[in-house]
Structure formats: C-alpha cells, structure tokens
Design a protein that fits this description.
Helix content: over 70%
Strand content: under 5%
Radius of gyration: 28 Å
Structural class: mainly alpha
Shape: rod-shaped
Number of strands: 0
C-alpha cells in the first residue's frame, strides 16, 4: 500500500510538471500567433506605402514604373 501511495505521489508530481509545461507552451504559442498577426499587418502597411510611393514616382516621371 505504501508503494502504491508513493507511485501515486510521483505520478501526481509528474502530472503537475507536465501541466505547467503545457501552460508555458500555450503562452508561447499565443505570443507566436500575435507576432505572426503583427508581422502580417506590418507587411500589408509596407506594401500600401510602397505602392503609394511608386504611384507618386510614376506621376512625377510621367508614366508607370515597372513593379519590382
């Protein structure tokens, strides 16, 4: 009976450790997803600004510029 109690205690400690790791992984995954969202937003803004600059240059130069 004492051996079973000790095993149950060991399993409970291991479970608590794994649950803690899972929580940390979930937090890191949420941070990574937020980073991806921020990066996509940045790239969209970058492309809008780039297109605006190219349009302005085309107007000044008198014709369309080739897309790079």
């Amino acid at each position: 009976m004492a051996r079973l109690r000790a095993e149950a205690g060991d399993l409970a400690a291991e479970l608590a450790s794994v649950e803690g790791e899972n929580e940390q992984l979930a937090q890191l995954m949420a941070q990574q997803q937020a980073l991806v969202t921020d990066t996509r937003r940045f790239l969209e803004e970058f492309e809008r600004r780039r297109a605006s600059i190219l349009d302005g240059l085309a107007r000044v130069a008198g014709g369309p510029l080739p897309a790079a």
